[in-house]
Amino acid sequence: MVVVLLPNFGVSFAMKSTTNISTDQLALLALKTRVNNDLLATNWSTATSICNWVGVTCGSRHHRVIALDLFGMNLSGTIPPDMGNLSFVAFLDTGNNSFHGSLPIELANLRRLKSLLLSNNNFNGEIPSWFGSFSKLQNLSLGGNNFVGVIPSSLCSLSKLELLSLYNNNLQGHIPLEIGNLSRLRFLYLHNNQISGFIPSSVFSISSLLKIFLRNNQLIGSIPSIRLNMSSLEVVDFTFNNLTGDISSDMFDRLPRLQGLDLSFNHLAGPIPMSLFKCQELKDLSLSYNHFEGIIPKEIGNLTMLKFLYLAENNLKGEIPQQLGNLTLLIEIDIPANKLTGKIPLEIGNIPKLERLNLESNNISGHIPPRIFNSSTMRTIALDVNHLSGCLPWSTGLWLPKLEQLLLGSNEINGTISTSISNASKLIELDLSANSFSGYIPDDLGNLRDLQFLNLQFNNLARTPSSPKLSFLTSLAYCKDLRVLAFSNNPLIHGELPISIGNLSISLQTFDASDCNIGGNIPVEIGKLINLIRLNIANNELIGPIPTTIGRLEKLQGFFLEDNNLEGSIPSELCCQKSLGFLHLTGNKLAGPIPECLGDLVSLRHLYLDSNKFANSIPSTFTRLIDILQLNLSSNFLGGALPIDFGKWKVVTIIDFSENQLSSEIPSSIRDLKDLTYLSLSGNRLYGSIPELFGGLIELQFLDLSRNNFSGIIPKSLQKLLHLEYLNVSFNRLHGEIPNEGPFANCSIQSFMGNEALCGAPQLQLPPCTHNSAKHSRKATKLMECILLPISATLLILALIVFFFQSRRKHSKQKNDLENSIGLAKWRRISYQELYQATNGFCESKLLGVGSFGSVYQGALSDGLNIAIKVFNLEVEGSFKSFDVECEVLRNIRHRNLVKIISSCCNVDFKALVLEFMPNGSLEKCCIRIPPSWSDNSCGPL
Q1: SMART domains in the record, alphabetically (predicted)?
Q2: Do residue 910 and residue 803 come from a single domain?
Q3: Per-residue b or e along 721-735, where b marks 16 or more CB atoms closer than 10 Å to that residue's CB
Q4: How far apart are CA 465 and CA 459, in angstroms?
Q5: 173 forms bridges with which residues in the sheet?
Q6: Between 20 and 30 A from 589 (CA), which of 10, 318, 350, 682?
Q7: Hey, which of 446-450, 778-782, 893-897 has the most confident mean pLDDT?
Q8: Both 838 and 927 in a single domain?
Q9: According to the annotation, is 650 in a ligand binding site?
Q10: Is the same domain home to 793 and 884?
């Protein structure tokens, strides 16, 4: 605050002590030096009183300049700082000039200002915050400049402000919340900026507000509710924003004087609020291009002051209320592109001042009320794209002296076109297309001298039988402003284009006569229509050559002659049409070489020369067509090679060279066609392999290489073509495995038949791949030759190794037999409890014998196995050692005559060995026979 006030204080102090009328004069002379204007140069002279200068007003009391009005004087220049010395000025208007630059801070000294009007210049920079110091300011107009930044909140302190006009700048940011402080504000113009954010609810607390314009910004959110009675508000314009949500049902209860409401081009939804129909002073209602739904309430008939009704492009349904007929002041009814049904109310024909009726693109049915065609004020009748039926009244045109547009296309209207329509002498546009009109095309349409647009396409109209020439074309020569003439898809059988076609309006831009069964030659006079942009006479029975006068149509962008019987060659004069973007000559009998000069038509996007008799090669100049999108040369007699510089067509999407006599490999430059979706080279003499590079054409949807001489394998890279829907490589010389992934998963045998040695999946009805191709066979043979001897040697070594191990195995078996005879029986874990049960508690009946270190018992385990258990007596000295020694000895020795150890049982106070029970006694018993006489002795021979 201090930084701002100190400079201003210094300036104000200096002015207070020194300013006078001379100071005012110096200030204006300083302005004079900054602008370029002859009037000021001569009139603002020191030889005359400053109070007599143009635009200057002096006060009678202080004899100082109190007003400076320079509005619309064609001044250009900048505002000098000296203007801050006009300390008594209360009115300053520099509007509608060409001032530029920023505003000098010295203007902050103009504290008596009540009106500061700087609109429609080229001022730039930010809006100064020091405008907030103009406490007496009532009108601030800065619209139509190049101000940037935000709206200073300091402006909201101007308590006397009535006009705030900031339209047509580059302002951003939000609307200040404090704007509600401007309690005397009547006009708020913020339209055509880049203001964002929400609409502050405080805006609708300014009861004095008359008009608010916020259109064409970036405002979001819903429209705030109105809580106070705004009895003065007349106009609300919020169009072209991003407002959303429903409008509150009581929104308009407090706007009794509302005259204009424009909310179009937003995203508002919900039903039209019923409170709106309480605004009986409403004259202009625009809710177009939103998402309003529901019906048009019959209460709309209460808006008796309504002049303009715009409800286009919503989701309104139901019937058009007949109460619209009560609105006798209506000038325009515009409700296209909704979902309206039912009939057009008869009452609409009673609206005396109606000038525009637009109900197109709905679902309206029934007949058109005849009264609509009896309105002397009507300028536009737009009822196209509905389901209207019946015939047009015979008097159509008689009572429509001001009618400029009659648009009835895309309905179900039948009958003839009445000749009375030619009485609508102001008619500019006549669209009767896509109906069921029959009869003849009236010859007196030429009476519509102001006609610019005539569309009669898609009907059942015929030519006048009295002459083969299309006589109505002769009459249209009187329509000197005619720009569009379209009558395609009518049965003008055996009609011919008259030479008078050259007399049609020189302003003609579109001529469409396709699908009409027209015969004869193309008149050379057609070359007089030098402003033609589109010429379509395709799908007829035209004969003869293409006239060389076509070359005069230098503005031609679309030329469509396909499916006729034209002969001869393409005239070189056609190459003069440097703007030509579409050339369609398909399905004629044109012959000769394709002109090289077509490659100079660099604007070409579509070139269709297919199904003719063109010979020679594809012109090398075609690679200059770097913006070509679709190129079709199929079904001709073209030979030679494919263009090497394929890759220059970087944006091409369709290439069809099929059914010719082309002979070459596919050039590698094809890899650059990244946008290609359709490629057909079938029915030629192309050879070589299918390039791996095809895998990079990731947009490809259609690929036909059939009936050529391609050889080699099908590249697996084609599996990458995930968008490929059609593939045909049949009748070539391909071999090897057919890939099975990507697009190949959906292919049938028809795509591959007629090749040499393809193999693949069973569903293709081909043999499985077992390296049976010639290439693979040769490789396999070489491979076998290379490894046969090493394999044989290896097998011999393996045989010797097997023999060696067999010998070892036999020896090992013998050893195992020995081990099995003396070694460990299959080891098993046996608990003390099992031993206790097997010996009945180690009872004496199971005792086999007693030794120095223990006792031997016989027992039987639960599975029936007979065992012998040697239980060591742990109380005898050396028994522990004896147990360990026996375990170690029996573990390390092997003999067939030694008993087998089954297990052991060992804990702190019990140790035992479990042995196989020998039912025949011991070895000693078998080997040493003791005579009975010795049995009683205590000792015997050894």
Answers
A1: LRR_TYP
A2: no
A3: beebeebbbbbbebb
A4: 17
A5: none
A6: 682
A7: 446-450
A8: yes
A9: no
A10: no
Backbone angles phi, psi at 444, to 5 degrees: -90, 15
DSSP output for 37-57: -HHHHHHS-TTS-GGGSTTEE
Q: Could you please report the per-residue DSSP string of 631-667?
A: EE--SS--BSPPPTTGGG-TT--EEE--SS---SPPP
Statement: residue 555 has pLDDT above 50: yes
Q: Which pLDDT does position 30 carry in this prediction?
A: 95
Q: How many domains does the chain have?
A: 3
Beta bridge partners of 56: 68
Tokens 């230098």, located at residue: 554
> CB under 8 Å to 493, separation ≥6 — which residues?
462, 463, 517
pLDDT average, residue stretch 788-815: 56
pLDDT band for position 827 (50/70/90)?
low
CATH number at residue 893: 3.30.200.20
Do residue 779 and residue 923 come from a single domain? no
pLDDT digits (tens, 9 = 90+) for 746-779: 888 889 999 988 998 777 778 888 754 444 444 4
399 pLDDT band, cuts 50/70/90, is confident
| Residue carrying structure tokens 């095809």 | 694
pLDDT at 832: 76
Whether residue 266 is contained in a domain is answered as no
Per-residue confidence band for 736, with pLDDT thresholds at 50, 70 and 90 = very high
Rounded Cα distance between 296 and 89, Å, is 55
The whole-number pLDDT of residue 16 equals 44
The answer to whether 186 and 162 are in contact (CB under 8 A) is: yes
Share of the chain above pLDDT 70, in %: 86
Rounded CA-CA distance 642/618 in Å is 7
**Neighbouring residues of 792: CB distance < 8 A, sequence distance ≥ 6:** none
Of 325-334, 350-359, 602-611, 873-882, the poorest mean pLDDT is in: 873-882
Distance in angstroms (rounded) separating the CA atoms of residues 289 and 552 = 44
pLDDT beyond 60 at 639:
yes
Q: How far is CA 485 from the centre of its chain?
A: 34
Listed residues 384, 410, 438: the one ending a domain:
438
Average pLDDT over residues 561-589: 97
Give the separation between CA 922 and CA 917, rounded to whole angstroms. 10
Residue 226 within any structural domain of the chain? no
Mean pLDDT score of the chain: 88
In the chain, what's the furthest Cα-to-Cα distance?
A: 183
Instruction: Give every strand in the sheet of 98-101, ordered side by side.
Output: 76-77, 98-101, 122-126, 146-149, 170-171
Range of the domain at 865: 832-933
Q: Are residues 899 and 779 in the same domain?
A: no
In a shared domain, residues 367 and 418: yes
Residue type, 869: I
Give the Cα separation of 90 and 932 in Å (integer): 164
Rounded CA gap, 575 and 141, in Å?
57
* Structural domain includes residue 911: yes
Q: Are 306 and 378 in a shared domain?
A: yes
What type of residue is 109?
Answer: N
- The residue out of 403, 421, 438 marking a domain boundary is 438
Residues 548/526, Cβ–Cβ less than 8 Å? no
Residue pLDDT, tens place only, 501-540: 999 999 999 999 999 999 999 999 999 999 999 999 999 9
| 841-848 CB contacts, 8 Å cutoff, 24+ apart | 842/871
Could you give the CA distance from residue 830 to residue 865 in angstroms, rounded to a whole number?
A: 12
Shared domain check, 414 and 383: yes
Number of residues assigned to the chain: 942
Residues 6+ apart with CB under 8 A from 819: 894
* Cα angle value 498/503/506 (rounded, 5°): 135
Give the span between the Cα atoms of 646 and 693, in whole angstroms: 13
> Which structure tokens are listed for 377?
């004020």
Q: What is the pLDDT of residues 238-255, one digit of tens each?
A: 999 999 999 999 999 999
